[in-house]
């Protein structure tokens, strides 16, 4: 018998025949992956070490991407509905027929009334392309999913400082010395955040996690602040109160780089009350500390005086900073005043404020790096305040989310920690102030393109999308008085508005990768009814639904025509600087996907299909002068489309010689260059341009050179958001464009140009004694929304979810493992399995998001635990708040941006006795258009 | 531990078989010719069915031959070897007895010794498991031994001996359960297993996978305490106390022996089932169980 | 023989930082992917799309809550795979010699050409680190990616276990714990790395770094610059003067 030492094992096996490098799609983080091929098949996936996003690491989803690619739920061919909507009964058709059907619906609409086609996309990574299609088609009804996702965060960031967290910017992980995380479970920037946290841990940097739930990132936080949901704004402003009281704010920074010194008009009778005092040339005025005189804010050499005031015609006008100090020094924001509501003791708040101040000011860091500012002044070093923050939906998915996100940005700015070493840093193409973004457009002409981009940043009531009668121009009522700054649209309102015919009826709903009949909708049960509802003639209220998915999701059953997409390893994709790129604070970067394997089904990349459809409809830009298709496929578009001369979807290797960076003619070999380089392109920012980007001459020049903008555009941060004041003024009766009466007081209150806090709407609309508990969801790190459950590896990790209850609640109700609870909101009720969780805010319950599945979907068996035990909280959340005294129902959205307020939900809980056979509600199975998966998987190539 | 029916049945059968061999080797009963054949046939059938069947449920029988290789360290390997040696030795005993009527006293004692060792090795497979504190006690091999010898004596028709042995088994079961309960209670907590005791009380929040897996199926089987207590009483009565009483208090005879066997067999099935079902593997601590 | 080697030349193993692991499951699926394509039979999944899915994983991540009286509860993620014990009971119980510990580096492996799938080694392992693969009928366990760490077809920097390479937070470290000067040994010394269930005498090679003390922030409150809010303006003026 052999001795162990004699046993021969192969320690150097051949890993693969070939490695193909592309980009992950298991979430929107877009890491670089090495796809190892054996015998022409995908064998194994690991991370690309050279990739700027992930530097070789992959998360649980990325490493399981193979099983997503092989999932039995993949759609096989275009489908035409044959059974009733929602049944899942389809017939397979050819692509020609599919495109004919689609064009048959869309062409007459375009010729007569383009707005009756609504095109909405989910977590689409090609929005600059899909919006280009919608604009060429001419419908005003286009948006991606941002409105129900995190527009509060995005919009608050843009309006305040020209960018926000996530794709907009990142903490300076290498230098920061104190990191504070608000309301994040995973976020889009998944691997960079994890890499960053790892760096902090290596250096022993303190992490403070503010989250009602201590899991994931918060589990490793050194200090956990288990805040009561919806109260972060109050907590943050109490921190501001403490800092101001102690004078621990960065005054030079505030004077130079923000509108703290802007004089605002303080004359209640003036139609400009609260707007900035402007000079002849329209520039906001500051008082020069040296001369005591008014001056344009950007005059070289002028240091604004924050302590002065300006007296004119018997009225004193002050700089913004004084208003700010006055407001937050008030006792209303004292730690003692907010302790009970936030669930955080006053001592703790004071301690955190003191620590922020200590690290920001006592541990200041200095980089010996000269730089020149926008006014031409030279500085010999870069000073850093090494405190940094990151936040996401925990603060943004509330109806006070916009103001809370604003409050956080204001806190960052007061500490002087934005765009400085050790603080928070923007990623190109950000920073980009609101003025530099487009304005929303909805100018429709039958047969013609829309008059401009759909989405943008309104700077006042004049940018609202209302018709002469004050009615919404868009189906989702974005950019109306109900949510004036809805920069990403309101995807969660589309189906209910279309169903209600309010503001008008539509004909064709065209959707792309959004599971709207299930986990991405509020009120999923209601949405399923709306999608199948018929009018008095027996016709569907929403006559046509076209949908593109790659998998057999719940939504597939609710469409009339299915355009099956490829998997991420089978298509070209473009992660573009025009859209949502993969840049880093130190460089601009973009990336591609390319077909590392050809599909083995009759499916097509959706972008290619959209090009084909556009060509069939003869849309401008999609066809040549003689009407022939302009692009053969998406790869062709990626290379040859130019948005502005010399600027196209991909920034790398432009020009005939391939040397162009950001600018240059199309290069036919561009995609090959990307593939050679591992699927991405990165261009580093010069050292002197790496910080102070909004005010750094070298950065501005670099950005123009790379085509990020066409002219230098330095700006200052908006502690005070003047456009908001314009809406407030209108609500106060000033101006021609007037809100409806019932919204005046709400606008006055919520459009405050300085951050405020008010309780989440649900708190005032439901009886909080009856519904005392907050109910939240979190993303599991290893699942991407509903997709993960079709993945044989990932679903074993979580194939059912529990409602987690804090210990007290668990005990008072006498729950035991295996029990079910009936959870009731003002809108509905579900009965679901429970589990105990001690490290949880005592007023909060939660569950993992999107684990519950509809029977018959995703090629899972009807009795899969996802369908029998798994559940969604979505059935409890309604897109409208319960009726108020006046009978009106407000949207369950942020009043500024329209962001869906997922986390405002309040519930009550009772033990379900006897427990049901299955989680409730439970729906009848849908017919699977793809069959079922195999009984065993053991695949080795 | 998961009480796999196959393992329960097969350990019982082979235990009885080797128990019977033990007595046959000592010449009890002192039989030859056709009667000897019948006894040896029963012993071989029971032990071989047990052994072969236990390899039968091995997923990788093609490698079974290697199972004899690790006698220096592995109790399972030892069991296999001694079992085979026992079976061969008894061939040397059985053939002369059946066909020549020859008494093989020395070989017989040697065979009985091997049979005895076989059942002890079986017991040691369980006893050696540090991971299953309930099993890790001297009474485990004794229990296996008494099961085998007691049952074997019953089959051998040695009613009185069987009676005493089963009485002993009853006592051993009681001691084994008692000691086992103590060991199990001292198994530790999730806090100890995770090394997080300095942070306070520790409970499992998520087990990594909500779907089933081998370790949980095999090692994290749990039986309710009340249920176990009831089954212990039944096992004790059926396997030990009642047959012992019948055998010791009534005159020997086929009817009483049969009755005792009829009680004993279901008794040991329940006892053996409990042996597994009650056994708490330390890995359960990681699952909060 | 599956007697354990008296000593091993190296003690290769993992050091897992519980203060850093966020429980993302990256190491779990990276391990599954690598080991399905490499060493021995693929890691199978049964009823993968059905009502009762199950499968073989060599590494699983658990989460626990710890709470001391009067303190907030805390959450700790603990990844678990084979600890490549020095005194590996799984090896000595194995009847076939399939389980063995390599004398050169201490890695504990299963020789699949010998394993009968009896499961005894899994019983002997205190940590639940062995899983019988239902399709192959073979005992599976972490190989410490023995087919990566010496693999000449991989670039030098990639010669680390798949789980270590993928861990996004860098919570997993690989190295020679037998060498007191190795990075991993120093890390263990610095951070008080510990063994799981040391009482069982398995002498695990893998070590865990305990979570750092939590919820300790206690910075003294800031002092106000002025008694009254109006005083703030005066302070502001003075502060600006200094600039
Ligand atoms: N209760 C609750 N509900 C929520 C949230 C919450 O926090 N709590 N969060 C909300 C948020 S922020 C979001 S973004 C939404 C997300 O919700 P969705 O965007 O609906 O997310 P998915 O479930 O992933 O659905 C996307 C669809 O895209 C399909 N898909 C996957 N890959 C491809 C592909 O390559 N091509 C095509 N064409 N389709 C593909 C999937 O099969 C799936 O049907 O959920 C929202 N819903
Ligand atoms: N693995 C994985 N990654 C994903 C996704 C996924 O499905 N899976 N989805 C992607 C998408 S579309 C999005 S939008 C992002 C979202 O990424 P996250 O912002 O991380 O979204 P959630 O998982 O909804 O987590 C919200 C967090 O906020 C906390 N929270 C809720 N209410 C409050 C509150 O009032 N205050 C505070 N401080 N915290 C609160 C919750 O406890 C939770 O931890 O993730 C993206 N990344
Ligand atoms: S974070 Fe994970 S899922 Fe998202 S792109 Fe990166 S590897 Fe893929
Ligand atoms: S962890 Fe378990 S399987 Fe690994 S060596 Fe130790 S006892 Fe054996
Ligand atoms: S299952 Fe295989 S490796 Fe484990 S003890 Fe049995 S033969 Fe040895
Ligand atoms: S070392 Fe290799 S086999 Fe072991 S857990 Fe890590 S990836 Fe899996
Ligand atoms: S990959 Fe790293 S952070 Fe993620 S679960 Fe594994 S050890 Fe923890
Ligand atoms: Mo989202």
Molecular structure report:
The complex is a heterotrimer of chains A (941), B (289) and C (243). Chain A is α/β, with parallel strands linked by helices and 941 residues long. Helices cover 25% and strands 15% of the residues of chain A. Chain A starts with 17 loop residues before the first strand and ends with a strand. The model of chain A has no long low-confidence stretch (mean pLDDT 96). Chain B folds into 2 domains: 128 residues, no CATH class; 124 residues, no CATH class. Chain B contains 10 helices and 1 strand. In chain B, helix 1 runs antiparallel to helix 2, helix 1 packs across helix 5 and helix 3 runs antiparallel to helix 4. Chain C has a single domain, classed as Alpha-Beta Plaits, CATH 3.30.70. Chain C contains 7 helices and 11 strands. In chain C, a hairpin with a 6-residue loop joins strand 6 and strand 7. Chain C is elongated, with a radius of gyration of 24 Å. The mean pLDDT of chain C is 96. The interface between B and C is large, with 58 and 68 residues. One iron/sulfur cluster binds next to helix 2 of chain C. One iron/sulfur cluster binds next to helix 1 and strand 5 of chain C.
Keyword list:
heterotrimer; A: 941 residues; alpha/beta; 7-stranded mixed sheet; 6-stranded mixed sheet; C: 243 residues; alpha+beta; Alpha-Beta Plaits; 3-stranded mixed sheet; 11 strands; binds ligand MGD; binds iron/sulfur cluster; binds molybdenum atom
Brief overview:
The complex is a heterotrimer of chains A (941), B (289) and C (243). By secondary structure, chain A is of the alpha/beta class.
* Radius of gyration over C-alpha positions of chain C, nearest whole angstrom: 24 Å
Number of strands of chain C: 11
- Order of neighbouring strands in the sheet with most strands of chain C: 10-1-11
Query: How helical, in percent, are the residues of chain C?
Result: 10-25%
What is the terminal separation of chain C in angstroms?
79 Å
Shape of chain A: globular
Query: Strand share of the residues of chain A?
Result: 15-25%
Terminal Cα separation of chain A, in Å? 31 Å
Identify low-pLDDT runs of chain C.
Answer: none
User: What is the CATH topology classification name of chain C?
Assistant: Alpha-Beta Plaits
Task: Compute the number of helices of chain C.
Answer: 7
Order of helices and strands of chain C: EHEEEEHEEHEEHHEHEH
Strand composition percent of chain C: 15-25%
**Number of helical elements of chain A:** 27
Q: What's the main sheet of chain A like?
A: 7 strands, mixed
Strand order of the largest sheet of chain A: 5-4-25-24-23-6-7
**Largest beta-sheet details of chain C:** 3 strands, mixed
Radius of gyration of chain A (Å): 27 Å
The number of strands of chain A is 35
**Shape estimate of chain C:** elongated
Secondary structure class of chain A reads alpha/beta
């Amino acid at each position: 018998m052999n001795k162990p030492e004699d046993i021969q094992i192969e320690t150097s096996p051949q890993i693969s025949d070939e490695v193909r490098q592309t980009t992950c799609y298991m979430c929107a983080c877009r890491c670089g992956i090495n796809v190892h091929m054996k015998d022409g098949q995908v064998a194994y996936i690991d991370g690309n070490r050279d990739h700027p996003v992930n530097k070789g690491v992959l998360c649980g989803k990325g490493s399981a991407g193979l099983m997503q690619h092989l999932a039995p739920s993949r759609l096989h061919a275009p489908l035409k509905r044959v059974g009733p909507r929602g049944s899942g009964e389809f017939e397979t058709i050819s692509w020609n027929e599919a495109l004919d059907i689609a064009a048959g619906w869309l062409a007459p609409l375009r010729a007569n009334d383009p707005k009756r086609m609504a095109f909405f996309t989910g977590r689409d990574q090609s929005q600059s392309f899909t919006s280009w299609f919608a604009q060429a088609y001419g419908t005003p009804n286009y948006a991606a999913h941002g409105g129900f996702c995190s527009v509060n965060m995005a919009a608050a960031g843009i309006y305040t400082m020209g960018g926000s967290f996530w794709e907009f910017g990142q903490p300076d992980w290498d230098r920061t010395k104190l990191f504070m995380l608000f309301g994040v479970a995973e976020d889009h920037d998944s691997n960079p955040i994890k890499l960053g946290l790892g760096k902090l841990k290596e250096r022993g940097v303190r992490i403070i996690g503010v989250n009602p739930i201590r899991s994931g990132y918060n589990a490793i936080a050194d200090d956990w602040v288990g805040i009561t949901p919806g109260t972060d704004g109050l907590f943050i402003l109490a921190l501001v109160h403490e800092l101001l009281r102690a004078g621990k704010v960065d005054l030079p920074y505030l004077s130079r780089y923000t509108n703290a010194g802007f004089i605002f008009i303080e004359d209640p009778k003036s139609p400009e009350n609260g707007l900035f005092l402007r000079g002849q040339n329209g520039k906001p005025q500051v008082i020069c500390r040296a001369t005591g005189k008014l001056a344009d804010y950007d005059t070289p050499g002028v240091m604004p005086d924050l302590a002065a005031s300006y007296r004119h015609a018997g009225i004193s006008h002050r700089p913004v900073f004084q208003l700010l100090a006055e407001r937050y020094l008030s006792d209303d924001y004292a730690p003692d005043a907010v302790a009970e509501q936030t669930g955080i003791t006053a001592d703790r708040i004071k301690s955190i404020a003191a620590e922020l101040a200590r690290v920001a000011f006592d541990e200041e860091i200095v980089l010996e790096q000269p730089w020149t500012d926008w006014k031409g002044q030279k500085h010999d070093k870069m000073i850093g305040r090494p405190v940094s923050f990151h936040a996401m939906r925990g603060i943004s998915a509330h109806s006070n989310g916009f103001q809370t996100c604003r409050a956080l940005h204001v806190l960052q700015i007061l500490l002087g920690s934005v765009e400085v070493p050790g603080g928070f840093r923007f990623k190109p193409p950000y920073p980009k102030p609101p003025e530099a973004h487009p304005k929303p457009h909805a100018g429709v002409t039958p047969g013609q393109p829309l008059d401009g981009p759909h989405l943008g940043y309104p700077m006042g009531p004049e940018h609202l999308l209302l018709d002469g009668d004050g009615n919404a121009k868009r189906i989702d009522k974005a950019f109306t008085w109900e949510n004036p700054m809805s920069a990403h649209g309101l995807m969660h309102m589309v189906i209910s508005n279309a169903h209600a015919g309010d503001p008008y009826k539509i004909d064709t709903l065209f959707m792309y990768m959004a599971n709207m009949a299930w986990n991405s909708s509020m009120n999923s049960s209601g949405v399923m009814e709306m999608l199948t509802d018929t009018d008095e003639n027996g016709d569907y209220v929403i006559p046509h639904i076209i949908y593109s998915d790659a998998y057999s999701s719940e939504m597939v059953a609710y469409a009339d025509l299915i355009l099956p997409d490829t998997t991420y390893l089978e298509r070209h994709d473009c992660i573009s600087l025009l859209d949502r790129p993969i840049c880093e604070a130190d460089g601009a970067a973009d990336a591609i996907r390319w077909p590392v394997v050809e599909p083995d089904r009759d499916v097509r990349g959706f972008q290619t299909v959209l090009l084909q459809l556009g060509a069939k409809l003869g849309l401008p830009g999609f066809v040549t002068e003689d009407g022939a298709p302009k692009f053969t496929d998406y790869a062709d578009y990626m290379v040859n489309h130019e948005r502005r001369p010399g600027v196209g979807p991909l920034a790398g290797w432009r020009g005939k010689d391939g040397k162009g960076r950001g600018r240059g003619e199309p290069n036919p070999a561009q995609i090959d260059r990307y593939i050679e380089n591992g699927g991405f392109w990165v261009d580093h920012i010069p050292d002197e341009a790496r910080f102070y980007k909004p005010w750094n001459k070298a950065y501005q020049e670099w950005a123009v050179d790379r085509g990020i903008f066409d002219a230098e555009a330095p700006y200052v941060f908006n502690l005070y958001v003047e456009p908001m004041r314009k809406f407030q003024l209108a609500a106060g009766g000033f101006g021609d464009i007037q809100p409806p009466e019932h919204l005046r007081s709400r606008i006055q209150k919520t459009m405050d140009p300085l951050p405020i806090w008010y309780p989440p709407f649900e708190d005032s609309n439901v009886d909080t004694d009856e519904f005392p508990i907050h109910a939240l969801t979190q993303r599991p790190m290893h699942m991407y929304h509903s997709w993960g459950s079709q993945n044989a590896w990932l679903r074993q990790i979580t194939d059912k979810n529990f409602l987690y209850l804090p210990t007290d609640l668990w005990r008072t109700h006498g729950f035991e493992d295996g029990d079910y609870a009936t959870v009731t909101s003002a809108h509905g009720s579900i009965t679901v399995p429970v589990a105990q969780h001690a490290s949880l805010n005592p007023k909060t319950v939660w569950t993992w998001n999107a684990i519950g599945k509809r029977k018959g979907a995703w090629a899972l068996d009807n009795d899969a635990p996802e369908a029998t035990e798994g559940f969604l909280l979505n059935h409890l959340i309604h897109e409208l708040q319960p009726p108020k005294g006046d009978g009106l129902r407000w949207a369950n959205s942020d009043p500024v941006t329209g962001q869906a307020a997922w986390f405002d939900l309040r519930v009550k809980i009772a033990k379900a006795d006897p427990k049901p056979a299955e989680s409730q509600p439970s729906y009848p199975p849908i017919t699977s258009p793809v069959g079922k998966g195999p009984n065993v998987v053991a695949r080795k190539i | 531990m998961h009480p796999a029916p196959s393992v329960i049945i097969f350990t019982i059968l082979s235990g009885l078989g080797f128990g019977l061999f033990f007595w046959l080797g000592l010449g009890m009963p002192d039989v030859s010719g056709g009667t000897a054949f019948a006894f040896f046939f029963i012993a071989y059938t029971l032990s071989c069915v047990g052994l072969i069947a236990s390899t039968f449920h091995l997923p990788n029988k093609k490698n079974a031959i290697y199972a004899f290789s690790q006698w220096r360290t592995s109790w399972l390997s030892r069991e296999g070897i001694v079992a085979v040696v026992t079976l061969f030795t008894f061939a040397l005993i059985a053939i002369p007895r059946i066909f020549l009527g020859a008494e093989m006293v020395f070989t017989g004692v040697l065979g009985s010794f091997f049979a005895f060792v076989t059942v002890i090795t079986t017991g040691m497979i369980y006893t050696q498991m540090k991971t299953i504190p309930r099993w890790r006690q001297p009474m485990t091999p004794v229990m296996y031994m008494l099961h085998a010898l007691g049952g074997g004596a019953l089959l051998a028709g040695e009613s009185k001996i069987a009676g005493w042995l089963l009485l002993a088994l009853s006592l051993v079961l009681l001691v084994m359960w008692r000691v086992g309960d103590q060991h199990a209670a001292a198994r530790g907590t999730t806090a100890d297993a995770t090394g997080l005791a300095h942070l306070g009380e520790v409970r499992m929040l998520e087990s990594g996978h909500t779907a089933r897996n081998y370790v949980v199926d095999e090692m994290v089987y749990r039986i309710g305490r009340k249920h176990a207590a009831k089954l212990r009483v039944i096992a004790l009565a059926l396997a030990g106390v009642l047959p012992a009483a019948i055998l010791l208090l009534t005159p020997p005879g086929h009817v009483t022996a049969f009755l005792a066997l009829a009680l004993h067999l279901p008794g040991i099935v329940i006892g053996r089932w409990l042996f597994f079902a009650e056994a708490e593997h330390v890995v359960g601590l990681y699952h909060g169980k | 023989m599956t007697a354990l080697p008296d000593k091993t030349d190296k003690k290769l193993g993992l050091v897992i930082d519980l203060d850093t692991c966020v429980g993302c499951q990256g190491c779990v699926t990276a391990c599954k992917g690598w080991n399905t394509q490499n060493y021995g039979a693929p890691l199978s999944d049964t009823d993968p799309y059905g009502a009762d899915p199950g499968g073989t994983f060599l590494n699983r991540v658990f989460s626990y809550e710890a709470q001391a009286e009067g303190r907030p509860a805390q959450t700790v993620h603990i990844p678990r795979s084979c600890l490549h014990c020095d005194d590996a009971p799984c090896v000595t119980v194995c009847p076939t010699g399939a389980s063995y510990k390599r004398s050169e580096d201490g890695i504990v492996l299963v020789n699949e050409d010998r394993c009968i799938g009896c499961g005894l080694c899994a019983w002997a392992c205190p940590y639940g680190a062995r899983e019988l693969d239902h399709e192959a009928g073979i005992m599976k366990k972490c190989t410490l990616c023995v087919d990566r760490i010496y693999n000449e077809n991989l670039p030098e920097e990639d010669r680390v276990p798949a789980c270590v390479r993928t861990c996004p937070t860098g919570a997993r470290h690989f190295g020679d714990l037998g060498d007191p000067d190795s990075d991993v040994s120093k890390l263990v010394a610095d951070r008080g790395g510990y063994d799981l269930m040391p009482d069982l005498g398995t002498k695990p090679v893998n070590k865990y770094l305990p979570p750092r003390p939590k919820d300790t922030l206690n910075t003294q409150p800031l002092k106000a610059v002025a008694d009254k809010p109006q005083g703030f303006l005066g302070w502001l003026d003075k502060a600006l003067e200094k600039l």
